[in-house]
Amino acid sequence: MKPRNDVPSDIRRDLYRESQHRAERRSKKASSLPGTGVPYPPISINVLPTQTSNASMVAASLEPSASIEPLVIPGARDAAVRDYCKWLESKVIDETYKADIRKACEVTLAHHLDLELVFEDQDPNFFMEQGVKRGTARRFVRDIREWAAYVSRDAPGEEFCQDILEDD
Predict the structure, then answer these.
(1) Greatest CA separation found in the chain?
(2) What are 98-128's pLDDT values in tens digits?
(3) What is the Cα–Cα distance from 41 to 51, expressed in whole angstroms?
(4) What are the tens digits of pLDDT across the range 24-59?
(5) Do 28 and 108 belong together in one domain?
(6) Same domain assignment for residues 7 and 79
(7) What percent of the chain has pLDDT over 70?
(8) In terms of domain of life, where is this protein from (predicted)?
């Protein structure tokens, strides 16, 4: 049997076309994704925002003393704490609020803190953990600069302090 001569030319041509179609279909299936016609799968690249800006903000919030100008309060540190507490008490009428201010004062002195340290720390949570109400704790920490300005601006601040010490 002679392969080329035994098969009529029109059948041979049809068989050749069919085998080429089959080969093309196989190569397309093997080399491309369905429906895309692209030989490689798509690549997705997800880019997240950088953490450096957030990290620096967090670091800045953890180190408030670096951004806060330090206070210098003259005189005995424990006396300044007592004077400050009396000044805070003079700003409120409610006795429970005044008692809470006294509690913040006691906590400050019991932990051997002074107003400069409390102001540097800017940590009302410390006082809240010791049982001081949130508003009182925040006010106690925040108003130190105002009190220091009041005492240094008004020379009668010393008289105010002396009056307070005499009341005790």
Answers:
(1) 132
(2) 999 999 999 999 999 999 999 999 999 999 9
(3) 31
(4) 877 766 655 555 566 667 777 777 776 665 555 555
(5) no
(6) no
(7) 69
(8) Eukaryota
> Which residue reads 């409390």 in tokens?
118
Q: Could you give phi then psi for residue 76, rounded to 5 degrees?
A: -65, 135
Q: Which domain holds residue 24?
A: 1-35
- The verdict on 154 and 98 lying in the same domain is yes
Let me know if residue 100 belongs to a domain: yes
Strand residues in 29-126 grouped as ranges (E): none
In the block, tokens 């000044």 appear at 87
Which residues, including other chains, have CB under 8 Å from residue 156's CB and lie 6 or more apart?
A: none
Q: Are residues 80 and 162 in the same domain?
A: yes
pLDDT in the model for residue 165: 47
Instruction: Tell whether 85 and 159 lie within a shared domain.
Output: yes
- The reply to whether 98 falls in a domain is yes
pLDDT at 65: 46
Number of domains in the chain: 2
